[in-house]
Amino acid sequence: FNSTLSGLAVGRCWDRATLLLEEMRQGPITPNVISYNTTISSFVDWEGDFWPYALECLELMRLDELQPDLVSFNTALRAAGARGAWQASLALME
């Protein structure tokens, strides 16, 4: 599943990546930190204001009792920073 998520992220198919992640969360396959990091990466360099979904993924990780790692935070920062959401970026660093 992580390979599929990676392909979706590279293909900038954030909507499909988030659907697959949600299916994983509801089904027998449990997403791990890599699953979330890959999904978060699908929101980087996107032309719309999709960076809040990156922050939502961080929250979902916590709900799933996973600890976001350095890659999680850096990727979410890149997604928010690319769209000029500096206040959200600062909040992540606190």
Question: How far from one another are the termini?
Answer: 32 Å
β-sheet strand percentage:
under 5%
Poorly predicted runs are none
Number of helices: 6
Q: Which structural class do you get from the secondary structure elements?
A: mainly alpha
How would you characterize the largest beta sheet? none
Cα gyration radius (Å)? 12 Å
Q: Domains counted in the coordinates: how many?
A: 1
Overall mean pLDDT stands at: 86
The percent of residues in helical segments reads: 55-70%
One letter per element, helices H and strands E, the order comes to HHHHHH
Task: Tell the overall outline.
Answer: globular
How many strand elements? Answer: 0
Topology of helices and strands:
Blueprint: H1 2-10, H2 14-26, H3 33-41, H4 51-63, H5 70-82, H6 86-93
Looking at this protein, list some descriptive labels.
94 residues; mainly alpha; 0% strand; PPR_rpt; TPR-like_helical_dom_sf; repeat; Pentatricopeptide repeat-containing protein
Explain what you see.
With 94 residues, the protein is an all-alpha fold. It has one domain. 69% of the residues lie in helices and 0% in strands. It has six helices and no strands. The protein is globular and about 35 Å long. The relative contact order is 0.15. The model has no long low-confidence stretch (mean pLDDT 86).
Outline of the structure:
Keywords: Repeat. This is Pentatricopeptide repeat-containing protein. The chain has 94 residues and is mostly helical.
